[in-house]
Every structure is written in C-alpha cells, then in structure tokens.
C-alpha cells in the first residue's frame, strides 16, 4: 500500500536557521508530490508541487523541495526560517486512480516551531 | 477563480441533531472530496466523488452521508454524531485523473456536544 513517511514529528529552530524536513514515500508507480502548510488555526495551503521535469522545485515563501526518485524522497528546504514559518507541514503523494480523482496520501506531519 | 468555499465555518451540534455541511467550487473540477482532520494530524480521506458519482467511501460510518447534487456542489449530511466526530471537515476539488492537484477549502470546524 502507498504510504508517506515524514522523519521528524517536531522541529524547533531559531530564526535564520536553515530548515530541511524529510519526506519519503512508498509507491511503485508515477506520483505527484506536494508539500502543504497549515498555520495555527488556518486551513491547508499548498507550498509547492512536483509533477515532472526539474526535480528541484521552488514554492512560495522561499521554500523549495528536491525530488530524488532513486531515494523515493521529496525533502523540503528553506535557507533561513522566520518566526512566521511556525506551522504544521504535510508531505503528500497523489497516487493515480483511473477515471477518479487522485487519492492524496498524507504523511503524519511535522510541527515546526521557530523561536524569535 | 481557484477557490473552494465551505459553509458554515463553525458548527456546534448535539448528538441528536441533523445538520449539513456545504462545499462549492467553480473551477470546473469533476472530482470532489471530503476529508476529516483532527488537531495536528493529517487530513483523512472520507469520500471521493467523480463525475458526481461516489467513487470512494473509506469505510465511513453511515451517520455521515455525502451528496453531490451537481458538478459544483458537495454536501455532507450529519446525523446522530458522536463527540469523537468533532474535527475540522475539509472539502477539496480537482480535475479527474493523474495530474489532479487538489484545491482545499477552509474547512468547517465541527463540535459535537
């Protein structure tokens, strides 16, 4: 069965520190990959997505992610975090379902706390 | 218009009440979804509608009853809920098929007393 694994449950950083959140997926077919962010009390927002092409994708708010097919990984990075990046981050895989919408499979989430 | 709207934003109901959640999109998407999300947990898929027909039911209890009256609307009818059903209920929509990025609504925060 398809699954998504996020390595860290809770990450605590100081402002200006660099961020890398790990995400590995288990799925034999071609996938679309996503990172979503959920700020406290708010709804899910798409940070970035990978469908095909350049494996290094850039998203909003200075985030980027790299798709490494051989490692089944899609890690999220940001060179310098801000207090406003405090949020829950979810990695997700969209597995193909013929004649249906994709079934979005989420990782368990990583809570990021940035100290001012 | 890349927006999915959901009403109401908040809902408090007793265990004997009947209520409905509503979701609407005007992006021409023919796949629509209901998710349930508990605090600090990922969204859990409940139902998928494809071309206005129920295509996936993730073994959701019958006290949750989805309905897709047309290609823009998705409802979730609630009846005899339990306190553990309190959660954020998210609606999403996408194109049908492989490349379908899902667009999420802001959710309805449901409290069952």
Please, how many helices of chain B?
0
Low-confidence stretches of chain A: none
State Rg of chain B.
Answer: 13 Å
Uncertain regions of chain B: pLDDT < 50 for 5+ in a row?
none
Order of helices and strands of chain A: EEEEEEEEEEEE
Helix content of chain A: under 10%
The major sheet of chain B is characterized as: 7 strands, mixed
pLDDT averaged over residues of chain B: 92
Describe the structure.
The complex is a heterodimer of chains A (116) and B (113). Chain A has strands at residues 3-6, 10-14, 19-21, 23-26, 31-38, 45-50, 56-58, 64-68, 73-78, 87-95, 103-106, 110-115. Chain A is an all-beta fold and 116 residues long. Chain B has 113 residues and is an all-beta fold. Chain B has no helices and 11 strands. In chain B, the strands form 2 sheets. In chain B, strands 2, 4, 5, 6, 9, 10 and 11 form a 7-stranded mixed beta sheet that branches. In chain B, strand 5 and strand 6 (53-57) form a beta hairpin. Chain B is globular. The model of chain B has no long low-confidence stretch (mean pLDDT 92). The interface between A and B is medium-sized, with 29 and 27 residues.
What's this entry about, in short?
Chain A has strands spanning 3-6, 10-14, 19-21, 23-26, 31-38, 45-50, 56-58, 64-68, 73-78, 87-95, 103-106, 110-115. Chain A is mostly beta strands and 116 residues long.
What are the key terms here?
heterodimer, A: 116 residues, six-stranded mixed beta sheet, 0% helix, globular, B: mainly beta, seven-stranded mixed beta sheet
Task: Give the SSE layout.
The complex is a heterodimer of chains A (116) and B (113).
Chain A: E1 3-6, E2 10-14, E3 19-21, E4 23-26, E5 31-38, E6 45-50, E7 56-58, E8 64-68, E9 73-78, E10 87-95, E11 103-106, E12 110-115
Parallel strand pairs in A: 2-12
Antiparallel strand pairs in A: 1-4, 3-9, 5-6, 5-10, 7-8, 8-9, 10-11, 10-12
Chain B: E1 4-7, E2 10-13, E3 18-25, E4 31-37, E5 44-50, E6 53-57, E7 64-70, E8 73-79, E9 87-94, E10 103-104, E11 108-112
Parallel strand pairs in B: 2-11
Antiparallel strand pairs in B: 1-3, 3-8, 4-5, 4-9, 5-6, 7-8, 9-10, 9-11
